[in-house]
Amino acid sequence: MTTLSSGFARARRWLRDHPLAFDATLAFCTLVAMICSSFTDPGDGHGPPAFGARTPELFSVLLMTLTAAALVLRRRRPMQVLAVTAALAAVEYVLMDPPAPVVMSTVIALYTVASRTDRPTTWRVGLLTMGGLTAAAMVFGSTPWYSQENFGVFAWTGLASAAGDAVRSRRAFVDAIRERAERAERTREEEARRRVAEERLRIARDLHDVVAHHIALVNVQAGVAAHVMDKRPDQAKEALAHVRDASRSALNELRVTVGLLRQQGDPEAPTEPAPGLAVLGELVATFRNAGLPVEVACADRDRLPAAVDLAAYRVIQEALTNVRKHAGAGARAEVSVVRVGATAEVTVLDNGRGSAGRRPGTGPAGGTGPDGGGPAGGPGDGDGQAGGGHGLVGMRERVTALGGALTAGPRYGGGFRVHAILPVEARTGEPDRPGTAGGTGLRR
After folding, report:
1. C-alpha closest to that of 89 among 71, 124, 63, 69
2. N or C: which end of the chain has fewer CB within 10 A?
3. Is 140 in contact with 92 (CB distance < 8 Å)?
């Protein structure tokens, strides 16, 4: 049984791949069926049909052969094949009595037209064929007009039109489903590529924040150690200890960030929470150890969404890093995080005068760049947009991704100000990660 079904399946696939061979086989089978039917006498309707009670005329055999041969081209020329078979069937009804079943070829040709054209065309062509052949059978036949043979012509042609239209509708439905599936697959691929690009940008921002902050501190402390190494070795050892702590923190954060690139379910994937305002005290302590006095103020201790909490932490980290690098000696910084309605506002102020005008965002001509800048004077800094860096640009992109706004520029009377407004309901679509620090409770 399995061998027989597999053989049928192979034959079906072969005929589907060779439509001309299938049509030739169909034409031959139709010719055999027409010739066998022409030997059958239906009788007067009160008894069973008698096979061999009549013999078809040579002219009828010729017409049956011509109509069957025309079916070989039914896919390439459906309308022409229908016209030829219908005309020859009408000639058979007019000239021969009793007529041979030449109309079988017309039924197949009409089905082909209905399955390969639209519905209005099927209705027009189908009604014309049904009416013409039925009228020819009723008018020119020797049997009464109400005989079952005449109504059989009407029924078979109508059935061919309906079956062809149903097959066409099903094909259109299947094609529509296939097209929607392909479109959905393309959409999923585009969405996956978009998410990958967003994840790469997010990881790039995190890496920049980590490297810029810790390397800046390492650079400052290493400079202090080199300066006092000979005269004050104890202070040099303390500076080198800060270098060690900053480098260790940088390595830990880099390991966590790069670990996000691992596949989901990796047993070595990082489980540490992302930095947030809950560890702001530790961040501020690193700057105080580097010689930058920082004052922190917090108006409330409500929990923030993970994405907003991380963005606020990164804005403060990058702003303080820029203060330490560009504000000059004797500068002081102030950090505040307050809730205002449905938003959280993060502000970082400093009173520094800069070093030869080198503040973030300073343009090459000495004026303020697109991100705001300090006093006119020096060329653009590496962390400013004009200088090719990504400090303020990264902060603005991170805040904008949450639907917030960031402004950065010089203060009246000297110093620099970074102000970020973050909506409490983040619009990034990122769920709160368990274990992520989400509170604004600040450790002094």
Report:
1. 63
2. N
3. no
